[in-house]
């Protein structure tokens, strides 16, 4: 058999093998968390995001890791979406129906790492340094009619319980920012009312840095923590009302009730 005939036979085999590989489903976290009603079982969430603010030609990206999965994602200009389509997976980690395990503002900020770079301008992402301490940042932006504000401490850290704020309306006369925190347990909640698999929040700190090269980074590890029921419904001790005009003896001791036998 000549070399040309061998090549003619082998070439279609290579093409069909390449096609089969390209159609093999990717092991993506979006499959793991497709059912958003299922409890998320990882004990931690590790985040590392890099967002190029003024240089759209550089590729922003996000890496996140759990005890079950890890993913690196970035914007794909050809498809107009993230290359790994991990948005749904990340949402499944942070939220479940009406439950917030992390602030909405954190997800919105991380979204800049795998969204169209034009969203930085369209969402009016603004980063302001504290004049006295350049590590302290205030970050504001508006996405789909919701205003977000993130304020770090003097060392550049935020936590899920501190530093995130939200305003549901762009109307300047409408209201001030409200705290954007994980869902709190309503008053009157008891242990028997809770589903242990979903009764948690994330705790820890994230470091947010803004370099003088207009690069914003978000890094840190958050750990799963059970929500604690506040003991604010304790029944006070019973108080016995004393008669206003209680008769006393010469030593000031109250006399026995004359109506009792």
Short description:
By secondary structure, this protein is an alpha+beta fold. It has helices at residues 3-22, 29-32, 87-94, 104-110, 119-122, and strands at 44-52, 61-65, 70-76, 81-82, 95-96, 99-100, 126-129, 137-143, 146-151, 157-158, 164-167, 178-179, 200-210, 215-226.
Any overview of this molecule?
This protein is α+β, with helices and mostly antiparallel strands. 16% of the residues lie in helices and 29% in strands. It is built from 5 helices and 14 strands. It has helices spanning 3-22, 29-32, 87-94, 104-110, 119-122; strands at 44-52, 61-65, 70-76, 81-82, 95-96, 99-100, 126-129, 137-143, 146-151, 157-158, 164-167, 178-179, 200-210, 215-226. The strands form 3 sheets. It has a 7-stranded antiparallel sheet with strand order 4-3-2-1-14-13-10, covered by helices on one side. A 5-stranded antiparallel sheet has the order 7-8-9-11-12, covered by helices on one side. Strands 5-6 form a two-stranded antiparallel sheet. β3 (70-76) and β4 form a beta hairpin. It starts with a helix and ends in a 35-residue tail after the last strand.
